[in-house]
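As a warm-up, study this chain.
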Amino acid sequence: MLINQVVIVINGNDNRVYKKNSNKVIISELENNSINQNYTLLQTNFKSVEDFIKAKKIIEKQVSPVNEIIIINKGIDLNMLSYQYDYKFIKDNYLILTNIFFFLNLLILNFDKKLKFILSFEKNSHYKVHMNNFNNSIINYLNSFKKDLKNTFSITIKKLD
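Now compare it with the structure written out below.
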């Protein structure tokens, strides 16, 4: 059985999540040359709502119904001296977060009845408070999402170690 995957690569990569027998759309800022499988790449900086609307249309045609949504956010290298006070980074970080929530809501009509979210996140670090907040916000949002949609979809959330 062919699995339809939507992979959202915010930072880093995790080759464990790409199933060989799958139809993949990868949404990322950069192309990933380490994936040795066929996939459709949709490039975005995650700050444009228009990019997500275009992505939804492509997903509708190529990987609907969506069986798995994978979110990768790991391998973040920060300059600790400027990180706490880099207000542009902080602002962009939370803009990306809200756009991902918007995007997931756009995709609801394209979900399979059994949908799996797979999260590949960096481990919490007290030095990376904004990334911790970002990742925890996604987890909390998905738990609420699961609860809200429980009558229509069977949603599972798996966080990889």
